[in-house]
Amino acid sequence: MFDWDDLRVFLAVARARKVAPAARTLGIDGTTIARRLGRLEKALDAQLFEVGVGDRTLTARGRELLAHAETAESAALAALEEVKGQEHRLSGQVRLSVAEGFGTWVLAPGMGDFNRRHPGIRLDLVTASGFLNPSNREADMAVMLARPQRGRLTVRRLGDYRLHLYASPAYLERVGRPGKPADLRDCTLIGYVPEFIFSPELDYLDEVEPGLEANLRSTSIIMQQRMIAEGAGIGVLPDFIGRRDPALMPLMTDRVEITRSFWLVMQGDMRRLARIVAVADWLQERIDTLKPIDAARQAR
Amino acid sequence: MFDWDDLRVFLAVARARKVAPAARTLGIDGTTIARRLGRLEKALDAQLFEVGVGDRTLTARGRELLAHAETAESAALAALEEVKGQEHRLSGQVRLSVAEGFGTWVLAPGMGDFNRRHPGIRLDLVTASGFLNPSNREADMAVMLARPQRGRLTVRRLGDYRLHLYASPAYLERVGRPGKPADLRDCTLIGYVPEFIFSPELDYLDEVEPGLEANLRSTSIIMQQRMIAEGAGIGVLPDFIGRRDPALMPLMTDRVEITRSFWLVMQGDMRRLARIVAVADWLQERIDTLKPIDAARQAR
DNA sequence: TGAATATGCTGCAAATTTGCAGGATGATTT
DNA sequence: AAATCATCCTGCAAATTTGCAGCATATTCA
Q1: Residue of A25, A71, A94, A266 best to disrupt the B interface, most CBs of B under 10 A
Q2: pLDDT digits (tens), chain B, 300 positions
Q3: Are residues B132 and B266 in the same domain?
Q4: What is the H or E stretch that residue A162 is in?
Q5: Fewer CB atoms inside 10 Å of the end CB: C or N, chain A?
Q6: Together in a domain, B64 and B150
Q7: 10 Å Cβ neighbour count for A230?
Q8: Among candidates B262, B261, B222, which has minimal Cα distance to B242?
Q9: Which segments within A52-152 are labelled E, that is strand?
């Protein structure tokens, strides 16, 4: 294989039609240009420029090479453009892995604000299928609902959130209002599909009352919320979802309360990048906006 | 501007996931690899690989670069091919990725002919596990049964083929001849394993009659053909398979007919290489030989 | 036509790049 | 648990690449 970098000098000479001007634009000595050109011709076993004196004009093979060299050039330029210096600029792409409910109810409403603040950063929300896979680098950072232990990851606690039982007024009217956790055994319960509970922290029902199992199940908390709101049954929801939906009523708030934490997880080496910091700060802010919701509940 | 040649070592490391194996494939010392990688990272001012121990996994920035580096690579490879020495001679290797049934029944019978016509070209048939992976260069070109959308690939339609229901005479004698698609619900059906249907275009049974599911399943169309021929049941087969096996009888040809297309896919840069053109032409010919089969069916 | 300027090639020294050996660390096998 | 293997980083010498100066030749402009 020839030296790919020689394509760069080939392009310069093909465009300048002379070695010396090409040398000036590249900032390399003309001698070097000539030698690398010769090396390339030898490696390709082809005459790229006409031999005669005067301007260097391309041979047929040279023109063939030109097309490919230009492709390579645009690839290299694009690479430079996209990758270079992203580390220090407040721009670029950040891929944030979040749980569906958190993304929908906490982050999505603030995305416009983030974009106004950091127009250069493209923030992608990818819904987590469970956990951030650090080896695959599916995401640059992740907000997780359970603290990960393994791996060389940077972990930071962003704050707490509470969960309560929720139901719709229609359901309560139809089947009555349960007074204690044990009453839930006779209710239609809505929860996660057990096989897809990737962390014991998500098995809320069992924590409310051991042995409790959901009758209507979904891997999606949003679908669960919809089911509860439609009066299908009772389920556990984070307050940042349940308190914002007027169709939902919290139940047994004094007897059943679950507390969990948000964890910000990222690759250690990204911690200092400007755009990562910007996103992390914004996340902290978003989560801080949840506190009033919590306080409102306490006041009731 | 960074040294374009460093993209080559970057690609090697990204693929080998380690410096040492990459060094072996490139024939350069591992130290040099590491140093040039470091130089590239400095030039791009970006971390390309994970810092920790173990395998070198790409960072987000590295993955961005990978895409561009691959473009540059295919340009460089094409340049080498086209320009180098005896570039226009019909020789070299072509790796063609094909679906199993197509390879077995359409291409394999004509391989001898191809070899006589182009003794200098070594044509490898690799069975596709679904799609052509352009990044790994597993194949130079591919005949696909579904049109790929993504990537910078050259796509060309080679022609159409039809599929019908097939069964063996023995099976029909034993359980009777179904007269309409709905009758198939009572038959033993043979088809693909749903989990491995990588493209909706392959879900033939559902197209014959919605909701139809196979009882006997295989990821291999050849095995399906064998099952049908042995009288195990009824299945959908391309005519280029079914019509050539005397043990198979087409069913309901006037009521159930599925049409699909063959797509020729290749790296854009290779399009013009002589040996690629030779293979593409031959593929077109092979597919054109299918038309009489189709016509024969129509005449019946 | 002739002078002025520019191009491009050949030696030589400087700078850079490369490979090798040795040793620390981690992974794999017995 | 020990041993073996492989990976990968750190100095140092060799090899290659690069730049500069000088000169022959070509091009340009008056």
Answers
A1: A71
A2: 899 999 999 999 988 888 888 999 898 898 999 899 999 999 888 888 876 667 888 877 888 888 889 889 988 988 887 777 554 556 677 878 888 788 888 888 788 788 778 877 778 777 665 555 544 556 778 888 877 765 667 888 999 999 999 999 998 998 889 988 889 988 888 888 766 566 777 788 888 888 888 877 776 788 788 888 888 889 999 999 899 889 899 999 988 999 988 888 887 777 778 888 889 999 999 898 887 666 555 544
A3: yes
A4: strand A153-167
A5: C
A6: no
A7: 12
A8: B222
A9: 92-98, 121-127, 141-144
One domain, residues A60 and A192: no
Q: Is the CB of B122 under 7 A from strand C?
A: no
Number of domains in chain A: 3
Q: Are residues A38 and A66 in the same domain?
A: yes
Q: A145 and A272 share a domain?
A: yes
Q: Residues A135, A280: one domain?
A: yes
Asked if A40 and A116 sit in the same domain, the reply is no
Domain boundary (B56, B83, B110) is at: B83
Say yes or no: Cβ of B29 under 7 A from any atom of strand C: yes
From the list A1, A87, A269, the residue facing B80 with the nearest CB is: A1
- Segments forming the whole domain that contains residue B22: 5-83
CATH number at residue B69: 1.10.10.10
Given a contact cutoff of 8 angstroms between Cβ atoms, the answer to whether A227 and A241 are in contact is no
Are B57 and A136 inside 8 Å of each other by CB? Answer: yes
